Amino acid sequence: MKTLYFTGYRSFELGVFQEKDPKIKIIKKVIKMSLLSYIEQGLEWVLISGNLGAEIWCAEVVELLQKDYPEIKLGIIYPFQGFGENWNEANQQMLQRVQMSADYVNATRHQPYKEPSQLRNHTQFLLEHTDGALLLYDEEFPGKTSFFLKDAKKYREDHPYEIDQITMDDLQNATFDSNLL
After folding, report:
1. Is residue 57 a contact partner of residue 27, using CB atoms and an 8 Å limit?
2. CA dihedral 145, 76, 38, 23 (to 10 degrees)
């Protein structure tokens, strides 16, 4: 796998409302361990859409991993121009920090959001331009990521596409694994 799309829970879906929440440390450690496995197998690009929560945390992990693995690149593919402009100032600054560390930034639609078809087109673009997806998502705890997962499973019916998930059990197990902390 050369190009991986990462997505998952938004911060509010996990009850995370501050950058210092201890849950973030565990989540980042699990993301790091997962990405290291892909990197060892030849991963070159991690793509995100810029959503708050799991995607931003993944971008921060990629930035740290680049110190030891300079071959790994981060791409942000927004679903539309102006993504995140209506967020509060702190969240906009977080997105800007991540964007500045990215190796590539673009949008699938170079106009502001107008209709849901833009989001479907964005998902289709990501599926067609990645080899697989890693989701911080557990189907027992539904969230917005369910829409991407449904589309990815349908896409996989006709195309080779790997879908891996980091589940709540994985996070729970990481809290008890002192080697990860």
Report:
1. yes
2. -60
* pTM over 0.85, yes/no: yes
139 near 146, Cβ under 8 Å? yes
What is d(CA 106, CA 117) in angstroms, rounded to the nearest whole number?
A: 18
CA angle 65, 3, 115 (to 5 degrees): 110
Answer whether 35's CB lies under 8 Å from 46's CB: yes
Contact 50, 76 (CB under 8 A): yes
Q: Calculate ∠ Cα 75-108-113, nearest 5°.
A: 120
Tell me if residue 76 falls in helix, strand or coil: strand
In 41-88, where does DSSP find H-type helix? 54-65
Neighbours of 98 (CB within 10 A): 22
Among all chains, which residue has been given the structure tokens 């121009």? 81
Alpha carbon distance 104, 170 (integer Å) = 30
> Which DSSP category does 13 fall into?
G
**Model confidence over 24-82: pLDDT tens digits?**
999 999 999 999 999 999 999 999 999 999 999 999 999 999 999 999 999 999 999 99
